[in-house]
């Protein structure tokens, strides 16, 4: 995840939720907001609705790995928040990867599209 930082502060999350755009599919919700910096910041969230801690951590790991594959192809200058949906607890990695590619294509954040 070169040129990508983690979103950590609560005010940044609230700003993205209130001013940003959102998209969703079966496994993921994406909130994104254009900013002036030349790097991306990203946050990964799995709420208690997804499952207990082991399942939530697995969901975050799956999202992080799928994002890592496409991070070099994403346009710079965005704050991104990926939220796991309840369906992700039963999902395989390939399903999450396809959902990640789908939601990034839908948001038009990908510079170029990789073949799976």
UniProtKB/TrEMBL annotation:
EC number: 3.1.26.5
GO molecular function term, any single one: ribonuclease P activity
Enzyme class, broadest EC rank: hydrolase
InterPro entries given in the database record: RNase_P (IPR000100)
Record carries keyword RNA-binding: yes
Catalytic activity: Endonucleolytic cleavage of RNA, removing 5'-extranucleotides from tRNA precursor
Pfam families named among the record's database cross-references: Ribonuclease_P
Keywords attached to this entry: Endonuclease, Hydrolase, Nuclease, RNA-binding, tRNA processing
Source taxon at top rank: Bacteria
Protein purpose: RNaseP catalyzes the removal of the 5'-leader sequence from pre-tRNA to produce the mature 5'-terminus. It can also cleave other RNA substrates such as 4.5S RNA. The protein component plays an auxiliary but essential role in vivo by binding to the 5'-leader sequence and broadening the substrate specificity of the ribozyme.
Subunit structure: Consists of a catalytic RNA component (M1 or rnpB) and a protein subunit.
Membership in a protein family: Belongs to the RnpA family.
NCBIfam families xref list: rnpA (TIGR00188)
Protein name per its UniProtKB record: Ribonuclease P protein component
